[in-house]
Write a structure and sequence with these properties.
The structure is a single chain. The N and C termini lie far apart (about 55 Å). The chain folds into 3 domains: about 200 residues, Alpha-D-Glucose-1,6-Bisphosphate, subunit A, domain 3 (Alpha-D-Glucose-1,6-Bisphosphate, Chain A, domain 3), CATH 3.40.120.10; about 240 residues, Alpha-D-Glucose-1,6-Bisphosphate, Chain A, domain 3, CATH 3.40.120; about 140 residues, Alpha-D-phosphohexomutase, C-terminal domain (TATA-Binding Protein), CATH 3.30.310. Helix 2 packs across helix 5 and helix 10 packs parallel to helix 11. It is an alpha/beta fold. The structure holds 6-O-phosphono-alpha-D-glucopyranose and zinc ion. 6-O-phosphono-alpha-D-glucopyranose binds next to loops. It holds the Pfam family PGM_PMM_III. InterPro entries: A-D-PHexomutase_a/b/a-I, A-D-PHexomutase_a/b/a-I/II/III, A-D-PHexomutase_a/b/a-II, A-D-PHexomutase_a/b/a-III, A-D-PHexomutase_C_sf, A-D-PHexomutase_CS, Alpha-D-phosphohexomutase_SF, PGM.
Length: about 575
Amino acid sequence: MVSFKVSVVSTSPIDGQKPGTSGLRKKVKVFKQPNYLENFVQATFNALTPEKVKGATLVVSGDGRYYSEEAIQIIIKLAAANGVRRVWVGQNGLLSTPAVSAVIRERVGDDGSKATGAFILTASHNPGGPTEDFGIKYNMENGGPAPESITDKIYENTKTIKEYPIAKDLPSVDISVVGKSSFEGPEGKFDVEVFDSADDYVKLMKSIFDFETIKKLLSSPKFSFCYDAMHGVAGAYAHRIFVKELGAQENSLLNCTPKEDFGGGHPDPNLTYAKELVERMGLGKTDSGGEPPEFGAAADGDADRNMILGKRFFVTPSDSVAIIAANAVAAIPYFSSGLKGVARSMPTSAALDVVAKNLGLKFFEVPTGWKFFGNLMDAGMCSVCGEESFGTGSDHIREKDGIWAVLAWLSILAHKNKQSLEGSANLVTVEDIVRQHWATYGRHYYTRYDYENVDAAAAKELMGLLVKLQSSLPEVNKLVKGLHPEVANVASADEFEYKDPVDGSVSKHQGIRYLFEDGSRLVFRLSGTGSEGATIRLYIEQYEKDASKTGRESKDALSPLVDVALKLSKMQEFTGRSAPTVIT
Ligand code: G6P
Ligand code: ZN
């Protein structure tokens, strides 16, 4: 057995290592600075209780972006030196974020070991490559992101760190081959185990969904399917699940080979960045020729996000979670005994609220960030949740789950088409399901405008103005009526604040809200996930109960409110932008 020694390297604090909404995300060149990654990882070890380090089992993997392999080898050497007992690595360093969560919760090593945490190497939907982003975040033993109490400690530790131990002479482990490598260190045995990236996750999906029913849908000549992994880690699961297990055609997979630069693209599943899928689904600017598939979906770099499309039809993420919640009990075996509750993030439309009310379900509105759902789920208060930012999931893990969302939609389609798949009736399409939902529950017209990489000071000023205006609503309403008399009055305005019903913690300043008398909303917030400058997000929502008016083009329906939002916030004045970077 190869043995290793531990040496202690002296270091000094590096500025700016404060983890954001989802870990530390910076340009690769920042991460490559001497001691940068080492400091952060050691600061994390020092923030954990000793039993989560000494003798512990840790998962280390990610979305396979540029610098991942180097980072994994460094983390292995640091883990060995800190007395970690074993490190589990997905083959080729690949594990989707939801799969990491599943591995922490479900995987049992051959000696009965269980993981107590994970370093996930991803910057999610941000581009990858030598000049793009890298990221690292720590997840806890429940499979969810570390809570603020831990990330605050990590940050404090990065400001005082003086040294870290490292097993410099530990040979690099070949992470492309499944198997175990064992070493002997000053504190005893240390193993690195490389395992199949998909096994544990596929097993979990099979325990949630009825694969046989979905298979009937996917193999029916009436149905067609397309999945775009955007060259992210979802590709490591798509072939196995959709083709091998569920019988989809090989050619229904787009960009399903994981690449360290995501093929030069921006791996964010929305109508702007998922261009190829959007074209194929008949929603592009040009007609791609041929009949689009019945169903299309895409994932982001680390496969926790999803976009759901029907033939020439876009499902907003806010509608998607509402529709999944409304159909879960009937269509998905995991939920057959009922939902414990449902939840959405504040900027997500209120479509889910209406479902919760009609079905008598517990309902929660939380700030942006998946960790808030995790607390509710750990307490058994929430089964299904989702966000406008293309995140949907359930209490099967503690991260949002892109492939789960696709399987949920396929289950609903299979359920609604039980008869039509056997007989000659027409297929119930994605569009049919959504329109039927609107007819039952009303429709929340919804759009989001993103202004990316704007000057941070200007963004702060804009937000400041919007807070100030909240104390003079009569003036605001004068402006609203002057612009668009048909828009309702602003009834109230505030900054969203959340008191966690489980641990009592309070999160303030979670977004600026203008709430209109007819239920419409304008929400403004600054993104917590960018790596450069500031990103302003503007969320616009309008509720229509009248079933005869739920079929309008979203753009037309929302145009007066959009105009009000832009003028009220002086968007162009502050940002110098006449149009947003992305509209979703
Ligand atoms: C990540 C988090 C989500 C959050 C999203 C948007 O994906 O996991 O919970 O909704 O970022 O965050 P942002 O702060 O950029 O709007
Ligand atoms: Zn992601």
